[in-house]
């Protein structure tokens, strides 16, 4: 008769101690990586002049427009407010997409809304600011440029360090879209 070797069972306490040791080593390694990497790769400064864009309804009444502007200017997080008319928005759009005629042909000046571009005193509180204006009469949408920046910049840094970018003449892939987002924040993929 042959006997089969039997694995010795480890006590639960020993298993938990081993798991805790593995987690601690992983955490220490991750912390060391980021502390050492801090000198190499720092997050660049936000490149824009405005942290939030408040898009207005197209048929906004002048009195409502004035109320929205006053509320934006009086808000404690507001440092600067700049109005952008539909015509100015269209000019900006044309400059941005000058090398993409298909996109330019799909939009006219009446399509784009007028807006307020807002610079905040504390850009890290952009979400709080947006929540306060999200449901205000006359406001169509509030766009968080800081939120987009916080979302995209880690990927942009990683892609730039790894040399990842779309193929030449690629205008339809997801990687091309990522390149466009990253280039708006000053990265060259």
What's the layout of helices and strands?
Elements: H1 12-37, E1 52-56, H2 62-74, E2 78-84, H3 86-96, H4 101-105, E3 115-120, H5 126-133, E4 139-144, H6 145-162, H7 174-184
Antiparallel strand pairs: 1-3, 1-4, 2-3
Instruction: Name the poorly predicted regions.
Output: 12-41
Number of strands: 4
Strand order, largest beta sheet: 2-3-1-4
Quaternary structure state of the chains depicted: single chain
**Percent of residues in helical segments?**
40-55%
Portion in beta strands: 5-15%
Mean pLDDT: 76
Question: How would the global form be characterised?
Answer: flat
Structure annotation, total helices = 7
Q: What's the gyration radius in Å?
A: 25 Å
Structural class: alpha+beta
Distance between the termini: 68 Å
The largest sheet is:
4 strands, antiparallel
N-to-C series of helices and strands: HEHEHHEHEHH
Characterization of this structure:
The protein has 189 residues and is an alpha+beta fold. It is 49% helix and 13% strand. It contains seven helices and four strands; from the N terminus they run H-E-H-E-H-H-E-H-E-H-H. Helix 6 (145-162) crosses helix 7. It starts with 11 loop residues before the first helix and ends in a 5-residue tail after the last helix. Mean pLDDT is 76; it is low at 12-41.
């Amino acid at each position: 008769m042959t006997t089969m070797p039997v694995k010795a069972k480890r006590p639960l306490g020993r298993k938990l101690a081993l798991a805790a040791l593995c987690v601690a080593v992983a955490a220490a390694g991750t912390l060391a990586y980021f502390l050492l990497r801090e000198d190499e790769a720092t997050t660049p400064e936000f490149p824009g002049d405005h942290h939030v864009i408040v898009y207005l309804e197209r048929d906004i009444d002048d009195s409502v427009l004035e109320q929205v502007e006053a509320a934006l200017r009086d808000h404690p997080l507001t440092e600067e407010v700049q109005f952008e008319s539909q015509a100015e928005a269209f000019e900006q759009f044309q400059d941005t997409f000058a090398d993409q005629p298909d996109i330019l042909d799909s939009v006219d000046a009446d399509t784009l809304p007028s807006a307020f571009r807002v610079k905040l005193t504390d850009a890290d509180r952009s979400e709080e600011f947006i929540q306060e204006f999200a449901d205000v009469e006359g406001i169509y949408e509030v766009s968080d440029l800081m939120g987009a920046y916080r979302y995209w910049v880690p990927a942009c840094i990683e892609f730039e360090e790894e040399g990842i970018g779309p193929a030449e003449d690629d205008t339809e892939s997801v990687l091309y879209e990522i390149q466009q987002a990253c280039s708006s924040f000053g990265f060259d993929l």
